[in-house]
Fold each of these.
Amino acid sequence: MNRLNDYEPVIGMEIHAELHTRSKMFCSCAVTDTTVAEPNTTICPVCTGLPGAMPVINREAVEQAIMVGLALNCRINAFTTFARKNYFYPDLPKGYQISQYDFPIAAEGWVDVVDENGAAHHIRVRRAHLEEDTAKLFHVYEPAAADYTLIDFNRCGVPLLEIVSEPDMHSVAAVHAYATKIREILRYLGVNSGDMEKGVLRFEANVSVRPRGSDTLGTRTEIKNLNSFRALTLATAYEIERQIAIIEAGGEVVQETLGWDALRNVTFSQRSKEQAHDYRYFPEPDLPPLSIARPWVDEVAAALPELPDAKHARFVADYGLTPQDARILVGERAVADYFERAVRAYNGTPSAVSKWLIGELFYLMNRERVAIEAVRVRPEALARLIGLVDAGTLNQNSAKAVLGEMFATGGLPEAIVEAKGLAQISDNDQLSAIVARVVADNAEQVAAYLAGKDSVFQWLMGQVMRATRGRAAPDVARQLLTAALNVRR
Ligand code: ADP
Ligand code: MG
Ligand code: ZN
């Protein structure tokens, strides 16, 4: 019995993204990389929650929230307010978080995604609202002494944008595609690095299941603090199966908040799910309502960069790329920019550039763990290298070797070809002499070939390549070798 097919998973996501502003959400402390900055160095009475300290709204954070809202096809609300969300936790010194409740900055948007199986999904975005991040706790377990916890307030008050989807995802693949798309958009807008190891982007998945064909929602659980795509997809898949097993056994899913144990690959109960009224939301008395005038929104809209979907369509239409290649290139804005600069410097079809970039350069980047920003091969230099192949100066293999050298040293292709003597040999006389020597030196193999063992031809070609240290123009060498063998028939 395939019980998984009798149920439809229903998933809604909450994504928390720290914003890349200069100062914090409600004070003038700098936003620092909390994984490297000395703890508790960018703090003040406001972000450490001292009584009487007054918050001030960060304009840059609001602007970035508007950018994201627009990119997610949301309505930007002209009237927004901040609210106090009351709860106690040691990382929240005020005893409440300033967030938004009734009147978020952005609402009712959507994104379209295509998952890894090629299936399209339309996912509605319920809202995107601004809030502040909490401090960071470090639990220290001392084998021989009492355990203790350290607290770093540098992160406390960092602007956080919470993006809440409708429960529109029905597979793990859709969840992965949606999370990937949101990350991609945030990175395009330059408002978040997408650096999940640093915790600047965190996922929560709300999961329920229902009998296929039903249109009522089942009871959901909420999996908190998923800090990687791996955790997101594994936890979601696990939770779908767990809930189906409960229902199949005649039980009922309990609405609760879950954690993800990444060592044992299971979800575990953290607490029963709190309801909105548990937080006693009320309007933040220290902040006035914020009105966002239409001209401001228009200004932000006009300054938005080209977004991934638009770029994808343009790459396919203007450069004749396959949708798959275009997808790979637009995944990161810096890669797309690199590609376009190389195309501009190159006199040939853009797909040749995409082939070298996706094939060889990505291979080197992966192998050496170098990001596109740090690659020493300038786009113009890559274009010139491909030009050398087109002109017959380099064969494919030599060109790959030259690219490896360019990658390691930042050198220019022409200089490397010169210094290493890698220029292709396509001169007939020179190659004829080499072919003649290979034929003479390998009488046994030549006899085997002439007796009908065709595969020996490739071996003989290999000898020609070896004799020229890989520099023979393959087409010319093949012709000459064929001719030299045929006269012996
Ligand atoms: P809360 O803010 O208390 O976590 P919300 O009702 O605002 O709850 O929903 C939070 C997220 O949970 C949203 O992304 C929403 O789409 C999702 N969600 C709500 N109900 C369900 C459900 N039955 N199954 C799956 N996801 C759900
Ligand atoms: Mg929630
Ligand atoms: Zn501060």
Amino acid sequence: MNKFIFISGGVCSSLGKGVAASSLGALLEGRGLNVRMIKCDPYINVDAGTMSPYQHGEVYVTDDGAETDLDLGNYARFTNSPLSKANSITSGQVWESVIRKEREGRYLGRCVQAIPHITDEIKNRILAVAREDPDTDVVIVEIGGTVGDFESILFLEAARQLIHESGKINALSVHLTLIPEVAGGELKTKPTQHSVKAMQELGIQPDVLICRAPVMLDESTRRKIALFTNVESDAVFVSYNVDATIYEIPLIFFEQKLDQVVLKKMGVESRHANLGSWSAMMERFAARNGKVRVGIVGKYMDLHDAYKSVYEALFHAGLEGGVEVELVKIDSSRLEEAESVESILRSAASDSGIDGILVPGGFGQRGINGMIKAAAWARTHKVPYFGICLGMQIMLIDWGRNVLGWEDADSTEFNHETRHPVVSLLEEQVDVTNYGGTMRLGKSESVAEPETLLFAAYQAPRIFERHRHRYEFSNSYRKEMTESGLRLAAFTPDGSLVECVEWPDHPWGLGVQFHPEFKSKPTGASPLFRDFIAAVRDRKQWDRA
Ligand code: GLN
């Protein structure tokens, strides 16, 4: 019998429900349980693929090519839950499939309604994940939105029914709320009381509360919250502000015995806790010595979440490289007009400039020329450069324009008329057929050439990473690119597509067509991020010497 934990949120959004859910998952895994994570998103978008990173943050991509909410990235960083299309459930998917079944006549003439048909569809999707693997012990279901929102009601109703049908011992409600501080420093519990009341009105009595608060709450405040919310007094936990890192949160919950209380409530015998990899990670965090500055040159700079997995992967690499990585966010359109790229790249950082440049993925024309300038600067100044997806395509445009002298070298995404389309859609390339202009999405294999930076990073020729792009290196330029010195460092197994390029005579300049950031963890950094940061750190030392 599977156990279910439903995580809901109250008072307001952005309380860190995803991190709380992931941290609980990590703790239960530490107790030897097999955990699966699911995110329910009340929005009507069928998936996150069509959402702008400016508004909604990064699109997280799974092995099977699902374009999902960035919370799945948190699940991937904190837990070992397999993640696929099935682990991200949106209102759009649910309604689309109910309406499709209705059109196919599958409801046999019945009136199709929100309850029970939509709620059944939600329940069936959750149960399908629970049944995928007979070894699954616990399914943690995070319900997006805030209780009281009109749009999350059907997900909460589905949760209520699953709790009722599974029995209390098999299904828990964990509710996350806010304890705000008002003028004078007083902490207020009233919003939490109201938020739990809103849950009770929907028929769900939370079993566990996690209160977001600026500081740890004392025993008497926790007792008061328990009394007025009908939650047992040992089941009120505090997620207080951490200035160190969000990866400390599983340990903060562990100290408060969150996992023990949850196991007891679910009738699971307490087992030995093994959080060795988390404590070791925190030790590495504390032992970091020195700082490096990485310039991120992209177009979605105002919202931190837009490049969430990239920023996290840089942090992970810093843990392994023993340095703090300061992110210097540079809006590439600022570099477009700039006379001197150098002055911006140097002044953007707090003192002596930037030690490395990373150009992340992206779509559309805006800011492209600024990225090309940054790449050219890194190449000619021997500053470590890491190009991801669009960042690799930028390397090719720079090489075409500034090394081969083709002024109009471009990607057909930005200039359809160019005489030198060094990056183009597969269907525009004569030698490859049958791919169509669709997105290349999800896990695929790349084969690294020996004696490349790429091979050195993975220590193996066969590499499995995830893709999300339409455009590719134009194969008709392979000869000119390699003859002028550019290293083609990886191909698809059939040799038809170029997956990685590297600069010659340069300490570390590499671009990959895939997205290694999605598989990086605090307990094990992505090999490419690790080596990039190592190169950045070494260059910095060499620079200072
Ligand atoms: N816009 C480019 C393409 O579609 C790059 C995409 C990306 O960086 N994810 O190929």
Amino acid sequence: MKGLTENPIFQMACQQFDAAADHLQIPQGERERTKWPKRLITVTVPVQMDTGETKVFYGYRVQHHLTLGPTKGGLRFHPAVDIGEVAALAMWMSWKCALVGLPYGGAKGGITCDPNKLSVGETERLTRRYTMEMIPFIGSHVDVMAPDMGTNEQTMAWMMDTYSAQVGRAEPSIVTGKPVSIGGSLGRRESTGRGVSFLADRAADILKLPNDSRVIIQGFGNVGSVAAYSLAKYGNKIIGVGDRSGAIYNAGGLNIVTLHAHFQTHGTLEGYSEGDFITNDDLLIQECEILVPAALERVITEKNAGKLKCRILAEGANGPTTPAADAILRQRDDVYIIPDILCNAGGVIVSYFEWVQDLQNFFWSEVEVFDKLYRILTHSFDQVLKEAKVRKVDHRTAALSLGIQKVVEAKKIRGLFP
Ligand code: GLU
């Protein structure tokens, strides 16, 4: 597939898949069938800007496999979005859903845009028009979107409204990550960040790290900020936080409440006075017990993997560690990796809960949501650790293998039609 195969993020997802497929000794035919995305959709999205002129944006949706149920995954608004990145993220969603036992194939969508440069009205028109363009390809039992980088509950509310207006009835189950007032689930907004901190805390227990471990978080969006609050609540000390502009570092510990208030008021961490302002590159190599990359892909590379000074790498982002960095970390053997498809799975797990609640019109309490979430995460984490131990592989290969194997088996038992 030309265009895709030249994209470095897609190449990275393929490299990871190939390593796991080698390990599982999947025959060539089944390998090809499992690896390549089923549907790649590209649309043009014309939007009337506030100036009155019309601008055309590019929108994408990749549905990776349809073997186990509808496809599921977020919608990203970011300037770097392209079909290759979206296809890689869709692939990771497939292994993530399979690993934690959700009846979904993976999907991901995106629009190439800078959400920080769009007004609220422009964002709404862009979202609604993208949803319109996607109507032939989505549905509660076909493909269900959710928030990702640059999108949020409001985006999902506009999508749900646009779709519902088209079909002539309220259809909450068309998206997840909606506001609770229109069929969203309690706990969905916090679920990814809380899942990350829950697993990091379990890993810290296994490694017998101190209760007041030092934490560094790169990315202060929905995932990073909730993980910061949650890890601080477990008793850890947050010593560094980064965003697009740079990072705030304070070896004595940061006050997350005032830092978050500053971030929300100014839209950046820059200017916060109770810490040193450093670069994101420097942030990642400061000494700490728990490092959480919670932003874009490919931030841990062959350039900094040898310099990391953390004990746990809890991957809140999708694809933060390149295969070259993985090779270095495997050699070092002193960094305990909680791989992305496990570490950040809390988001899609609670999305699944939201979808189930919407389909049944029967809503759960927050306690029920988190109780069920932590059970699934605990079980999946234990399975990954067991697989890694029995097969003598690293955590990433173990997690990917478990996910990929489930998809391969499902395809095999369903057979090939015609
Ligand atoms: N965008 C999130 C992820 O990458 C959540 C997807 C979802 O909830 O469907 O896992």
